[in-house]
Design brief:
- The complex is a heterodimer of chains A (about 100) and B (about 180).
- Chain A is mostly helical and about 100 residues long.
- Chain A has a single domain, classed as Helix Hairpins.
- Chain A has 4 helices and no strands.
- Chain A is elongated, with a radius of gyration of 17 Å.
- Chain A starts with a helix and ends in a 5-residue tail after the last helix.
- Chain B is mostly helical and about 180 residues long.
- Helix content of chain B is about 80%, strand content about 0%.
- Chain B is elongated and about 85 Å long.
- The mean pLDDT of chain B is about 80.
- Classes of the chains: A mainly alpha (about 100), B mainly alpha (about 180).
- At the A-B interface, helix 1, helix 2 and helix 3 of A face helix 1, helix 2, helix 3, helix 4 and helix 5 of B.
């Protein structure tokens, strides 16, 4: 079994995905959730470029990665603005306290 | 061979920074660790040959998003609470480990395949084959800007209402009190 450079990058992507998912599961702070989503998207961007390089179509991988970066930035911006508004109205960023969906 | 060590080093440092960003009690260090992850990701992208995306990632991920996060923190203040997690941490760790093993099992054969020929330039892909993506990106940026303006403009509206209320109150006060206030000023 030979290890090439793409395998190592794939290992890094999986490592970042694992850290991101773990953070998403244990975090209750609204700002920190935005932050963890950013980590997940960075892993996905690297994975897209890696897939493009592995399939010999790096241009396609890059174009989709650029679209993902733009969409992720907009998501982060709107989520941060919402978090600011939630903090002003509810006085906290704790998801358990601001959640009203209690059955 | 040396390239493998570079990639391994970048991956491990990025994962360490991501972990520190996640477990840090203060939000400002978390933001800085996130910027480090972004910078390391952009170096990885550059080494993979994706130069344009590396530049976009560095400027947007490490620059714009960090500035926005710091701005949001300056508005809402530091929130240092560290509440208990939604699900038990060992269970979360187990779930993530299973997920990582599954992803590795599915993705490893794909990454090991030999690269096909027929490289296409990014400009050709972006402007000829995926021109719709560009227009979607423009619409996304526009909607994002408008959304933020709409969400953050409430403070200005509140200030205007307060100013109007103050003016109304001062107009309703008796003239003698107003003159007295002016004399004090």
């Amino acid at each position: 079994m030979t290890l090439n450079s793409l395998d190592v990058v794939l290992f890094g992507v999986i490592l970042l995905l694992a850290v991101g998912f773990y953070g998403l599961l244990i975090t209750r702070n609204l700002i920190k959730i935005v932050l963890v989503l950013q980590i997940l998207v960075k892993a996905v961007v690297i994975a897209l470029v890696l897939a493009g390089k592995a399939s010999g179509n790096l241009g396609l991988g890059q174009s989709i990665a650029a679209t993902v970066i733009v969409a992720d930035t907009i998501v982060a911006v709107v989520a941060l603005a919402l978090a600011v508004q939630v903090r002003r109205r509810a006085g906290t960023l704790d998801l358990a306290k601001i959640s009203t969906l209690r059955g | 061979m040396i390239e493998i060590f570079y990639y391994l080093f970048l991956s491990l440092v990025a994962a360490f920074c991501a972990y520190r960003a996640m477990i840090s009690k203060h939000l400002l260090p978390s933001t800085l660790y996130l910027a480090c992850v972004s910078a390391l990701a952009s170096v990885t992208l550059y080494m993979l040959g994706a130069y344009e995306v590396a530049v976009i990632e560095l400027s947007v991920g490490a620059g714009l998003v960090t500035v926005l996060l710091v701005y949001a923190l300056s508005v809402i203040g530091e929130d240092t609470f560290d509440p208990t997690s939604i699900i038990p941490k060992p269970l979360a760790f187990l779930l993530v480990a299973v997920l990582a093993i599954m992803v590795a099992w599915m993705a490893y054969p794909l990454a090991s395949q030999p690269a096909a020929n027929g490289e296409v330039l990014l400009a050709d892909v972006l402007w000829k084959h995926r021109a719709l993506d560009v227009w979607v990106q423009v619409a996304l940026i526009f909607s994002g800007v408008m959304g933020v303006l709409g969400l953050l403009s409430e403070k200005v509206q509140k200030q205007e209402v307060q100013k109007h209320e103050t003016q109304t109150t001062s107009e309703n006060e008796p003239i003698a009190i107003q003159i007295e206030q002016e004399i004090h000023i």
